[in-house]
Amino acid sequence: MRSRRSCPRARRRALIAAAASVAALALTAVTGCTKEGGRVDMGPTGGTPVEGGTATMALQPAATPNWIFPIGAPGYGASYNYGIQSLLFMPVYDAVQDKGELTTHGPSTLGGKPRFSDGNKTVTVPLREGVKWSDGKPVTSRDIEFWFNLVKANKASWGNYSVGTMPDNVKRFETVDDHTVRLHLSRAYNPDWFTANQLTLMRALPQHAWDARTDGGEVGDWDRTKDGAKTVFARLTRHAKSLGSYGSDPLWKTVNGPWKLAGWRDSGQVTIVPNEKYTGPTSQRPHLDKVVFKPFTTADSEYNVLRSGGVDYGYIPPSVMAQKEKFEEKGYRTDPWEGWAATYIVYNFNSTHAGPMMDQLYIRRAMQHLVDQKAMSDVIWQGSATPTLGPVPVTPKSQYLSEAMEKNQYPFDVKKAQRLLSEHGWRTVDGTARCLRPGTGADACGKGIAKNAPLELTLLSQSGSTETTNMMQELKSSLSKGGIDLTVRQQPLNSVLGNSVPCKAKDPGCDWDMSFFGTAGSWYYPLNPSGEQLFSTGASANFGNYSDKKADRIIRAVQYSPDMKAMHAYGEYLAEQLPVMWMPNPAYQVSVIRNDLRGIGQNPTVTFAPQDWYYVKKKGADK
What we know:
globular, 17 helices, transport, 4-stranded mixed β-sheet, 5-stranded mixed β-sheet, about 25% helix, Peptide/Ni-bd, single chain, SBP_5_dom, 29 strands, signal
């Protein structure tokens, strides 16, 4: 669940046209990643194509792919998981590139343009005809129903679940025919939001191959009962947790995408080859013989392999951007991969130790005033990051962003931070602020904070990035100016995600105070940058257990109302309330790509389309 600047980075929130045309998803006219005067160039093409070849792509540090089942589990939200799954299992809707624009449906998706009716309380989804699974069985609406039954019966175990949203908001799921499904919704929804943030969650799963309660057991319609769906889901999840067996497990061999799995190592290295049984659009048939996604533990190790020519599509850390000319001289091109994202540090409001402190808005305000985002962006990220000012990306400008959201409500100001704490009864002793006025009064420390309690916090931060390490040290230093003692503990990204799950106060595993997983952006939004998955009470990606009744209400308004004022109210309120600590939002990566490898469009949602990649003939050579 991540994300990773000219277009906020990973999920290019295509700006969907308003109400009437939203139903048509006219993203092509108002795509969300534009610069003044036109679209962002998504990558070079041209040359004389040659068929075949292998391309090796370097993955970001410690973000090793570790989940193949297209129903993601909490704690397995690394962005590469979804990107790779989508190559094997065609998404119904997604933020896809089609003729240079981003839309929710195109050549790589099963779904056609959705049709809203009945006052936006019903949506009909047409499916592409003629698509078959690799075992020859047709892909039908039954495969969508299978997915829906599984998530409905197991929603608490689904990483994309947020209370009140899919599947809660579907009153009845109807299979109209083999290639049409219809969702009867619990109420009228904003078509912009529902298509971008709900229909993109749907998947087609091979019901005829997966709907068994036991390994080797009879395949039937078990998913059509709640108990049966739970049993089937438990079996599939058990297989998905066996990372070392992905390459040999017959479950994962039934695919309908342009690629199939050739290998998935415990280390996270994934190899895919063309699916020779692919029956989707001809334009989606791969040109390459093989693609290898290669993980790295650190940016430095990737940089060394890149310099030696060990990867065809890699990246350089911002700290060495001045050396990009050296790669260009060796036949590579550089291309910043920008996206649609926000970057932040999660506060754990249920932390066994610091929960009462996190619950105080004045403390969160003081801490935000101690984050020098501009200096971090300019110095540590070498200008490849921009400040995050709230839950709606600031760049590029979009219809989702109000004028108020473009202003930094909490600029770096040490004296203001110190004043906020002193006004509420904190005094710095031996470098650490301590509560000297416990209680709930306007000038007191706040509920649950004991007398002499120190303002000491622990932060889990992902490892593998020099920039992140330096940023955390800068944060530690600046927080100390307000008397806040921060201890930083670095872990691999997947470990941080696994240890930063929603929890209840005093339960085992709820002893963490803060968490950072934003080296390449913390959250890549769906096309509509709403916050139901992040900030709604009880949402699965609400890792810090944030809960605010007003926030819940205005988030629902974004879901229901096509009026853009609802989005503006949401963005302005959450920017002020600080459910998380806003941090500089870096470009996903500064890509370094072989000049003869073409067709790479760096989708800001951080998904890949290697079926579009191809090598071109070099002068005086066949390859």
